[in-house]
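thread from #wetlab-drylab

HS: before we spend reagent money on co-crystallization trials with 2'-monophosphoadenosine-5'-diphosphate, can we at least see a predicted complex? here's what I'd submit
DV: go for it
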Amino acid sequence: MQVEYSNSTRLLAVIGDPVAHSLSPLLQNTMIRALNRDDLYVAVRVEKGGLPAFLDAAKTLAFRGFNLTMPHKVDVIPFLSAMTPEARKAGSVNSVRLRDGRWEGHSTDGLGFRRALEDRNWTFEDQVVTILGAGGAARSIAMTAADSGAKKVLVVNRTLEKAQALCAEDPVLEAVALEDAEDAAAQTDLLINTTPVGMEGTGQTGSFPFLAALKPDAPAADCVYAPPVTPFMAAAEALGHPTMNGLGMLIYQAIYAYAFFREETFDGDRVTALGALLRRTLEGGSGNA
Ligand code: ATR
């Protein structure tokens, strides 16, 4: 995409390794242009252990902020002067801003997922929510669900200890072993896959036998967005469940991250309009970041 800059342009970045295929530059620069802001967003490959050098450079260059992907989301925490409640609860950070010479961290994954649910008129409130996986994405979503009034959040993971560690943090959360996934499915109002099973390029299609036990009509949402209809979604759709892929989460976490960088609160109409713009941008196929 074409970007504009001036002598007063502030820099933003996504850092990670690998980072070359990140969609963040496309999403963020599209927003920057739509909002007519004097920012420029780039992708920077930063290897594990490279954070201190990047942070020094970013301060020298007066970066406005940056997003983080693998392997930095947890490693960055000791370098931060402040964290939002969302980041503290998630135990990971996907957005950092520079304010008064200090680095502040935030996590927008759970908020982005919740906003994506709203597009479908789905909610965490009063629902039994079951989450597959117990990694970083699962933690962000589980904490957001707990904070948003979920009746119960069941975390199903093949490594039970990881689910138990996650669930120790809030009484609404409950760890479930994979063998007991059918029992969990039978009481589930909203099922969410946060594992990479079915993601393009992983070669894993996975199988989800417990879907047959899912409560009738319960939505099944995947955090994976490539392919657009994931194996998890296809299996749920075959059983008559409504589904959603991870594109909405990707889009809304980016919007909330940009608002955080700018120290602004975007109202609901702005979030909706930007969401529609970013979806058109991604689905229009100009997705080479
Ligand atoms: P993310 O930050 O995207 O959540 P992550 O922290 O690597 O990624 O977590 C991935 C989660 O998916 C983990 O809970 C992992 O299970 P383990 O805790 O047992 O490792 C789960 N996962 C990954 N591949 C899986 C597979 N093939 N089947 C089931 N679960 C899988």
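DV: The two ends are 8 Å apart (CA to CA).
HS: ok that's useful, forwarding to the group
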